[in-house]
Amino acid sequence: MDNSILHVYEDEIQSLEEEIELLAEKYEESQQESTFFSDEEILMSIKSFQREFQGESKGREPLSDLKVQLESLQTDLSFLMKFTGIQFTSHSKKTVEKNRNRTVQMHRLSGNCHSLSFQLEFQLLEMQNKENVTAVITDLSIIMESGEDSDVSKFVSSTEAHGNLSTFFRSLSCYAEWCEHRRCTFLHFK
């Protein structure tokens, strides 16, 4: 093999290694940024958000207050989308059964996380007793374009069996982020 061709390949390999190091540093920085919010801080934010909106008003709120609330919700939603990479594109809800102590609703969600798309369908069973409301997810169905990846299929099946949406979204966010890193890396080799 010609020395000049060999030298060109070595330069390209060196360039790719430097770029991989830069991407790894960027990933570490983003991981550190996400750890700035402790579990306690996140829970306190959620609780204050719930307290703010649980109290029912005794009449109509002024339009300006509703606009402020809408802007606040949009800001919160934007933050969550940037933080998790998950964007919901559609949601529909249909009440299947409702009585004094029990409500069953059918939910359909679709969206994407980075470059992976997903669709969820589940029933939310809410049971109310004198002190609190209990919510249980039943009949969870997840549709994802996993391609050839059998691990994703196993994960989806396990999540459907357990009905744990928070685990699904956390794992989806992490998996999709790494898929995006992998895709960018492979683009350099093409």
Automatic annotation (TrEMBL):
Keyword Coiled coil belongs to the record: yes
Listed transmembrane segments: none
Gene Ontology CC terms, in alphabetical order: chromosome, centromeric region; nucleus
GO annotation terms (biological process): CENP-A containing chromatin assembly
Keyword check for Ubl conjugation: no
Chain coiled-coil ranges: 6-33
Protein keywords: Coiled coil
PANTHER family in the cross-refs: CENTROMERE PROTEIN P
Protein name per the record: CENPP protein
UniProt organism field: Pterocles burchelli
